[in-house]
Amino acid sequence: MIARRHVIYVGGYDPQGAEGYYRLFERSWKRFLTIWPLTSKVGPLELDAEDFAHWDVEAAGPNWRVATRYEFLRQEHMIRANMAEPMTRQIPRALAWALDYLVSGALLRVLRTSWPFGLVLIYFQMMLIWWLVLSVVGGGLIAYGAAHALGLPVLLALVIGIACAFAVFALLRPLADRWFVVQINSHWPHLCAFARGERSCLAPAVMTRALERDPDIGRRGPPLILLTLGSIAPGAALHPKAVRLRAVTARLAAEPSIVWVDCQSRADIMNFWDFDPVEGIGAHAGEARCNPWIWMLRFRDMLSPQLFRRLRFDFFRLHYQFIMANDRRARYDYFMLLTGPVPVATWASHDYASMTAFAADATLAADRVPAFDAAQGRTTDYRRPIAGSNLAPS
C-alpha cells in the first residue's frame, strides 16, 4: 500500500491558476470528508516559482496514513496574457481557427467521432460570430436612425454607427467572459498550433517531454502513472495537420514503463466517450502498444440524484467533476486516488474491489484489494472496460 505520493497536476486552459485550483481543492476536500471520515490536514498553498506551486495533504484512516505532495504546473501567467491580448488580435485568430476546422474537414471528423463534442466547438465558434453580428447590427441600426430619423449627414451617421458598434461589443464582453466564449476561442488556436508542431505556450505533453529528456525515467524509482481526465486532446489531434500530437500519443501508447489511464464519462459532453484515444485519432503504435487503459466513469453514480439533475446541463461544472469530490462512495474517487493507500493503477484496474475494501470508518481490508497485474489490466480493445472494473459501458 502507498504511504507517500507525489502528484503533478497539469491543468487545462484556465486563467484561475494555482490560487483558484487551491480554493477548489479546499472546498471539495470538505465535501470529500463527509463520505470518508478521515483524519486529515491540507497545508497552505506555496507559490514556489513562476512555473510551480504546491500544497501538502495528509490523510489517514484507522489503519493507514498517506502523505501527498500536490504540485501544480502554473500556466496561468501565459493564459492570462493570451486572454488579455487586444480583441483585434484574438478575433481574427479565432475566426481563422473556425474557418480552418471547416475547410480542412477537421470539424467533420470531430462530429463523426463525437457529435456532442463537435457541437460544443460549433457552439463556441457561433457564439463568437453572433457577438460580432450583434455588434455590427446594433451599430448599423443606430447609424440608420441617425441618418434618417435625425437627418445627420451620412458620413457622420456612419462614424456614430461604428462607435456604437464598438460600444455594443464592449457591453457584451462580460457575457462573453461569463459564458467562456473568450476563453475557449483563445484556447483552441494555441492548442491546434501545438498539435501541428508549432510553438505554443501550452504544456499538454509533459510526460512525453520527460521521456525525451530521460528515456529511463519510468524504469527506476516509483512507478509513473499518467491519468488523463476528460481529455479534449482528440479534438485537436483529429485535424489532418496535427502530426505532432499524434506522434506524442503514439509515443505514450508504446511506452511500457508508464501506465496511462484515460478516464472518460458520457455525462461530460466536453470529452470523448467510448473512444480509443490512439487509433481513433489516426496514431499507430503497432504491436508495441500497451497504453492506455480506458476507464469509463458514471457521474450519475458519483453524485446524488438531486445534484446530478441540477448539473445535467451545466456542462463546465460536469467537466470539472473529474477533479472534484463525490457525493457518495463510487468506483472513481479523485481524492482517494490522490490521498488514499491503494495504488492508482490498482484502483483503476480493480475499481469495485478497491472501493469496497474500505469499511464505513475507512478501515482498509488490504487482503481484499487484488494484486496489481499490468498485463491483466491493459488492453487494446478499448470497447471493453479495463480488467476487474465490473463497470460496463452505459
Can you describe what's shown?
By secondary structure, the chain is of the alpha/beta class. It contains 17 helices and 7 strands. A 4-stranded mixed β-sheet has the order 1-4-3-2, covered by helices on one side. Helix 3 crosses helix 7, helix 4 (106-113) packs across helix 5 (115-148) and helix 5 packs across helix 7. The model is unreliable at 376-394 (pLDDT under 50).
List the helices and strands and how they pair.
Elements: E1 4-10, H1 17-35, E2 39-42, E3 52-61, E4 64-73, H2 76-83, H3 87-103, H4 106-113, H5 115-148, H6 154-178, H7 181-195, H8 206-213, E5 224-229, H9 233-237, H10 243-253, E6 258-265, E7 293-297, H11 299-302, H12 305-311, H13 315-320, H14 334-339, H15 344-349, H16 351-356, H17 374-377
Parallel strand pairs: 1-4, 5-6, 6-7
Antiparallel strand pairs: 2-3, 3-4
